[in-house]
Amino acid sequence: xxxxxxxxxxxxxxxxxxxxxxxxxxxxxxxxxxxxxxxxxxxxxxxxxxxxxxxxxxxxxxxxxxxxxxxxxxxxxxxxxxxxxxxxxxxxxxxxxxxxxxxxxxxxxxxxxxxxxxxxxxxxxxxxxxxxxxxxxxxxxxxxxxxxxxxxxxxxxxxxxx
Length: 162
Hints:
Elements: H1 2-21, E1 32-34, E2 40-42, E3 50-56, H2 61-77, E4 82-88, H3 95-102, E5 108-111, E6 115-116, E7 128-132, E8 138-140, H4 151-157
Parallel strand pairs: 3-4, 4-5
Antiparallel strand pairs: 1-2, 1-6, 3-7, 7-8
């Protein structure tokens, strides 16, 4: 029992340290792996672009509500250096539904099994949106504040960075 408590304490400490490491104004942790289309993705290779990273799931209604807003904002600003990566947090049994939803959007898509985002800690709420500027600096921590984004938030947080 004592060993179990110690182990749980270490896990909790590690999780809180990962969240604490996600400080706005500091370098964003790398994200790398493969997209749903099989192409490789590496966040550090996207320096020079503003990257919005959105953690979502097919069963999450607020996620599906914000996706058309993110898509419209991306279409308007992609030529200015905006990139969007949507990472599905769906279970393997729901990935077919997630992939079907993503057919309606032009942003990059990955599922949690094929991409390493461990530097972001445990994603405990969705949607969670992170914004990384052109220099690779975290500008919005998706684990704090309002979990959902709308056009006003996108314009306030991203437009000045483009």
